[in-house]
Amino acid sequence: MTLIIGTLLFGMYRQLINEQELQTNQHLAAEKLRYQQMALTLDRRSFATQIRTADPKTALVVWRSSLDLVGALSLMPDDMPLLPETRDFPILTSGPDKLHILTGGLVITRYGPVLIATRTDQLATLIERFVNAAITALMLTIVLTLALGYLFSKAILRRLVQYNRLSRRIERGEYSTRLPVSWRQDEFDMLAGNFNQVLDTLEANLHAVRGATDNIAHDLRTPLSHLRIGLEQLPQRPAEELDEASAILIEELDHCLATFDAMLSLTRIEEGQQDLELQPLSLNDLCQDLFEMAEAMAESNGQTLSLSLDQDYSVMGDKYLLFQALFNLVDNAIKYSGEGAKIEIIQQGNEILIRDNGPGIPDDATEKVFDRLVRLDPSRHNKGTGLGLSLVKAILQRHNARIELSDNQPGLQVSIRFS
């Protein structure tokens, strides 16, 4: 700010100097032309009279006649240039301001050289006053700028100190800490808001990790305990029961390995580490294959599985992964809708609906079931990894599809919409 104001003041100073020089030169040029024309039209005596009666407020004129100097000045300085070139020279007066500064030059007429000058010390005084005022204003600006800068920097530093203190609390593990957001809504408030959103996400992820850890412990504790007990009892079993006991232990171990394999597969899909083998896929064909694969499973549970196809719709996708996702949804409907349930697979353009009339799930659990290792309490008696719907959502997201769960009144409706 100081630099800008100083530059503006210097520009005004240069403009004032240039304006003074321009006005002086224009005034002297006009007087030069007037006296040249006067010398051409008047005789010597009349010319001298005009010089004697010239108004000193307009210009100070002096002419060296053959006898004496005629005009407002009692001297004609040596080495005066010819107009439009000018030179400054001082004169002494009897007034209160004894020393005056004049600017002028010579004009050559047929009666000889004429000195035409004008007073410029008044403009110089004005310029001096302007310079003094500008220096004063500049100094005040510097003082005011420093004061405001100090106050502004103190306010910023105070907020930075507060942010650093809160950051250290977060570093110590107090993840519920949030940066304050003021009413000003300035850049610091925007930064604090974004940082708070990051903390919200971090805290949610930490809760999810803790929940996943609890679920892993809950889901794997039982099969691992069975494995341990089975291995301890294995030497004590009769020879004829060893094969059956080994098969049971292998099944428990396979369940544990399936859980970890599903978690690894889910991570690869979510992080984009698994390449998709994209190809044009018909939703009609996918639903037809899905129906043929699951029909026997539904019949064995005493359930009815139906298929309804609308106008075909083609999508670009990985056939294996998409079929796996859709089959998981149908398999869940068969597992949890109960005996005698009616299950429908409906294809409507770019949307696939999977409906059942079973017990359904609570409204507040429609998003929770997509989290890792989440299994609602009624399903705990069925074996599973708790990763099926998480895997389904990850696969559909990779295919730019949305999945929604809603109440089928009764039962559950799963909607998959491809874009």
UniProtKB/TrEMBL annotation:
Location(s) in or outside the cell: Membrane
TM helices/strands, residue ranges: 130-152
One Gene Ontology term, aspect cellular component: plasma membrane
Enzyme Commission code: 2.7.13.3
Catalytic reaction list: ATP + protein L-histidine = ADP + protein N-phospho-L-histidine
Annotated HAMP domain residues: 154-207
All copies of domain Histidine kinase, residue ranges: 215-419
Top-level class of the enzyme under EC nomenclature: transferase
Swiss-Prot/TrEMBL keywords: Kinase, Membrane, Phosphoprotein, Transferase, Transmembrane, Transmembrane helix, Two-component regulatory system
A family per Pfam: HAMP
Classification via SUPFAM superfamilies: ATPase domain of HSP90 chaperone/DNA topoisomerase II/histidine kinase, HAMP domain-like, Homodimeric domain of signal transducing histidine kinase
InterPro entries hit by this protein: HAMP_dom (IPR003660), HATPase_C_sf (IPR036890), HATPase_dom (IPR003594), His_kinase_dom (IPR005467), HisK_dim/P_dom (IPR003661), HisK_dim/P_sf (IPR036097), Sig_transdc_His_kin-like_C (IPR004358), TCS_sensor_his_kinase (IPR050428)
One GO MF term attached to the UniProt entry: phosphorelay sensor kinase activity
SMART domains xrefs: HAMP (SM00304), HATPase_c (SM00387), HisKA (SM00388)
Name of this protein: histidine kinase
